[in-house]
Predict the structure.
Amino acid sequence: MQEIVHVGPEPVSPLAREEMVRMRDGVRLATDVYLPGMPEEPDASPGDTVLIRLPYDKSGTYTYIPLIAEYFAARGYRVVAQDVRGKFRSEGDALLFVNEADDGYDTIEWIVNQPWSNGRVAMWGDSYYGFTQWAAASSQHPALKAIAPRVTGTQLGEPVRAVPGERTRGVEWGITYLYPLTYFHSQDAYFWELDSERRPYSAQVESVLDRLGSRSISYDQWYPRPVHLPRFPTGDPFEARPVPTLHTIGWWDNCAPLSWADVAAIEARPAWALNHFLRIESMDHESYYLDDAEEDRVEERTHEQLIAGLPRMLEPALAFFEVFVRGNGSPTDIPRVAWNLAGTPGMRASDAWPPADAAPLELFAAPAGTLSPTPPATTSTVEWVHDPTDPVPSSVPNAFAFLLSAPDEAALADRDDVVSFTTDALDADLDLTGPVRADALISSDGPVMDLFVRLLDVDERGRAFRIARGQVSLRDAEDPGRVEVDLGHVGYRMPAGHRLRVHVSSSDAPEFLPQPGTGEDPWGAELTTTNRQRLRLGGAEPFRLTLTVGPSADTAMEGNRHA
């Protein structure tokens, strides 16, 4: 029987004053107000406000909002931190996503009518409390002057849905159906682990809900009969009035594909693009960084470690708000794109992403396990068996904290259900600076085939560190299908002497739900069977990896071109 951990709200910070703010339908949301100088000498004169709306307990240890609020308040901001509807101290139903636009508007309206507000509001936050910023932007409140969403997306948490007439779709995350059952079951949070060996997974859910004695309306809207409630009832954020946006993405954030989808949507809308400033850092979803000291790679960070990390987390937003909220300086003071080339220190600036000097580099897989710019002369097929009872294991226990362990994935290549292709050693440093894509012709003896492609940096000792990944699902897979796998974007320096490697497989569990082999929905499937998977190499439709690289590519790949 699964252990269920119940987590309720923590005490309100002594630096805050809690208010119950009424929404348009009468529901009241628990809201902490932090004023500069609190608690001894609060400054209640009108000033700029930073709003943070989140479902993770505004007073909780996990998101340490009181420390963040204190940091903003020390810079003269009034800070409002709010439990979203239905969560912790707030009233209403715990229903994912769909109330955040109206509740965001109503909260901003409440703020601008307080004596300590000067009518200017900014928003800041990660993940779901990055999503609440996009929702507020969609509501078009005129007082919202700037937002700073980090590691998030407008389609955050949305289940994968098949598009009629298309054979390909995304692969479902393991967290998708668990999230509304844990964080969004009700006011409090209830944490439990899915037993990946017990199918159907949906039956485990019903067992847990029976023990809790209540259902999750957020889960029930998605499974088993989805109800598509609009998350932006007043319209898509990118069709609304543009709001100056500092948009932060992590190279190793598992939610980065959602962020990059929003970047593409913004770039297609000139007015939004003019107000969009991109910041890309070498971090994951939980704000672990590639260059963290070993002593900082701990699951439970100390108070001192949290305090030490605040400048890196908050100063970029403060500089942005100084221009777009306070009106000090010029928009040209903020880099259009600020980014870290992983493996090098500091942030770089460019006018666009990818940088102007980036160019494509194609690499082709060959039967001998090589990866080079030269396509194979003949056509062949590589095969492996997907066994849903023994899937390829995910490389980290917490997909949101990849850099906490930054694992060596070399051993995965020893599995029979993982196919690997590797370049020769690089002759010089190679900078990867843009999108990565794999094109493949695949088939299976089963009805559905998932294809996972991982790009790794292999050092001189043979350690393999993942730097990009993507996955796609093909229906009617008995008939060969051409698929394009989006591995996201990369900013990474491959040192001379290292090799690029690709891992190809059909699973990555439990981070992604493994296909049962029968064609049934993975969440509800009870029976499983093995499938034989096939990947074409060479010929007219080879397995091809397209990288985006800096100007040093020709020198770096010189030895590989003659392989």
